[in-house]
Specification:
This protein is 26% helix and 40% strand. The chain has 122 residues and is α+β, with helices and mostly antiparallel strands. The protein folds into two domains: 34 residues; 85 residues, Cupredoxins -  blue copper proteins (Immunoglobulin-like, Sandwich), CATH 2.60.40.420. The radius of gyration is 24 Å and the shape is elongated. The protein has one helix and nine strands, in the order αβββββββββ.
Length: 122
C-alpha cells in the first residue's frame, strides 16, 4: 500500500508542476512581450537619421546609435541625462527610461550646428 501512496503523491506533484507551468506561461509570455523597444539611429555626415525616432510613452527602450562617420561624436541629451562618446565606426547601446509623452531633444556635442534630433514619446 505505501507504494500506491508514493505513486499517488508523485502524480499529484506532477499535476501540480504541470498546473504551475501552464499557469505561469502567460506571465512569461507577457514579460517577454514587454521587452524594451530598440530605436536604431545612425550618424552620417554629422547628422542623425532618423532625426526623430519614436518610442511608446511609459515604456523603456534601448537607443542604438551607430557612428558611420570617420570622427567621434558625443551623443548628448540633457533632458534624458545621457552623454556618450561614440568612436568612428562604432555602436553605442543606451538605455532610455520610460518617458512621459513629449519631445526629448538630443545633439551631437562635437557638431552641434548640424547634429541634432529628438526622441518623440507618444
Amino acid at each position: 500500500m505505501p507504494m500506491s501512496l508514493s505513486v499517488r503523491d508523485r502524480d499529484r506533484r506532477l499535476a501540480l508542476g504541470l498546473w504551475l507551468s501552464l499557469g505561469l506561461l502567460p506571465v512569461a509570455i507577457a514579460a517577454r512581450a514587454e521587452e524594451p523597444a530598440t530605436l536604431e539611429v545612425t550618424i552620417k555626415d554629422h547628422r542623425f537619421a532618423p532625426a526623430e525616432p519614436r518610442v511608446k510613452a511609459g515604456k523603456p527602450a534601448f537607443l542604438v546609435v551607430t557612428n558611420l562617420d570617420s570622427t567621434p561624436e558625443e551623443f548628448e541629451s540633457r533632458q534624458l541625462a545621457i552623454e556618450k562618446v561614440i568612436p568612428p565606426g562604432a555602436k553605442a547601446r543606451i538605455r532610455v527610461r520610460p518617458l512621459a509623452p513629449g519631445r526629448y531633444e538630443f545633439i551631437g556635442e562635437f557638431h552641434k550646428g548640424v547634429a541634432h534630433g529628438a526622441i518623440l514619446s507618444e
